[in-house]
Amino acid sequence: MAPVNDNPILVTGAAGFIGSHVARRLLEQGRHVVGLDNLNAYYDPKLKEARLARLTTSGAFRFVRMNLEDRAGMAALFAAERFPHVIHLAAQAGVRYSLTDPHAYVDANMQGFVNVLEGCRHNGCRHLVFASSSSVYGANTKLPFRTTDNVDHPLSLYGASKKANELMAHSYAHLFRLPVTGLRFFTVYGPWGRPDMAMWLFTKAILEGQPIKLFNHGNMRRDFTYVDDVVESVVRLVDRPATPDPSWSGDAPDPGRSAAPWRIYNIGNNQPADVPQVVTLIERALGKAARREMLPMQPGDVPATYADVDDLMRDVGFRPSTPIADGVNRFVAWYREYHGL
Questions:
Q1: How many CA atoms lie within 13 A of 217 on its CB side?
Q2: Above 90 in pLDDT, residue 4?
Q3: CA angle 254, 256, 261 (to 5 degrees)
Q4: What's the predicted TM-score (pTM) here?
Q5: What CA–CA distance (Å, rounded) separates 95 from 159?
Q6: How do beta strands 273-274 and 221-222 pair?
Q7: Which of 79, 104, 138, 155 has its CA 20 to 30 A from that of 306?
Q8: What is the DSSP string of 168-223?
Q9: Taking the CB of residue 75, how many other CB atoms lie within 10 A of it?
């Protein structure tokens, strides 16, 4: 067990899917955690409140309700707490919603991230770990996706905002020697997941006898990554601050590392699954057949994702590996319990 530290770790997005799991794991390790979230209505706040309720039973957890873009409030929080470690998981999520409300992504993902960077810069943060996304790979088609790949062609404003976060973080690492690690998450799923993601949408539709929507006529593959594997990756990395790579060269720049204390990792299962295969697994877990509605590709979407995670394995001795069948069964069991089915 890690020693209890009076200087808490900040977890932003603590009422969110990944953030609540990360905060819970840190509490189990004996850490003190300050959880920040704005509990917005992008999806049902009751789910966020239920996630928070699992954390507030611990005396080592404190909750702060605040918008990331509240510059004065964020500055005051960082100055008061002087967090030695920050795990920044809060963001406006969702690819398709970024076509509807682009300003939400600029406010939370751009302005909000500057406030986090400034808070870390001025208050002695020893390591900032932040959520990026597989969406940064955008128009890339060479699989698996590697952090050494160029990622200059995002297909959605959400992906562009995450790419911007990586660049902003690099500038702070270079200018102020702030150790920063960015994590490109690949289709995270599991208990306490998000209602706007495929696993939840498919399960809900099948149980209600509604058709499920299969985009690109079902020709989609995703590197579904179970949330416990994501959490394990995050907690292993938080105590390993990014360090400069002395072999990095501007003559042949590696996009995933730097002469500054800045690193990028893929966090994926390294085993993509066909989306129709996942539907079949959900059908088996529910004991009920799905009605399939085949639709064209959606704007901003990509046909396949697949993470190379060799760097993660080399640096922290862990790679996500939960089989999709196991993860689906656990999610469906949680979904039934949460909804009293």
A1: 0
A2: no
A3: 100
A4: 0.95
A5: 7
A6: antiparallel
A7: 104
A8: HHHHHHHHH---EEEEEE-SEESTT--TTSHHHHHHHHHHHTPEEEEGGGG--EE-
A9: 15
Distance from C-alpha of 8 to C-alpha of 90, rounded to nearest angstrom: 17
Q: Which residues pair with 128 in a beta bridge?
A: 86, 180
Residue 58's pLDDT is 93
Local structure of residue 145 (DSSP, 8 states): B
Nearest alpha carbon to residue 65 among 39, 27, 93: 39
Residues 6+ apart with CB under 8 A from 315: 237, 240, 265
236 within 8 A of 316, measured Cβ to Cβ: yes
Three-point CA angle 167, 20, 181, nearest 5°: 25
pLDDT-based confidence at residue 6 (cuts at 50, 70, 90): low
**How high is the pLDDT of residue 293?**
92
State the Cα angle at 233 between 283 and 170, rounded to 5°: 120
The answer to whether the Cα torsion of 51, 56, 58, 61 is positive or negative is positive
Burial of 175 (0-12, 13-18, 19+ CB in 10 A): exposed
Separation CA 306–CA 298 (nearest Å): 19
Angle formed by the axes of helices 227-238 and 17-28, nearest 10°: 60
By mean pLDDT, which of 71-75, 88-92, 174-178, 294-298 is the weakest?
294-298
By CB neighbour count within 10 A (0-12 exposed, 13-18 middle, 19+ buried), where does 251 fall?
Answer: exposed
Catalytic residues: 158
Give Cβ neighbours of residue 261 (< 8 Å, ≥ 6 apart). 173, 177, 178, 179, 180, 241, 242, 243, 244
How many other β-carbons are positioned within 10 Å of the β-carbon of residue 64? 16
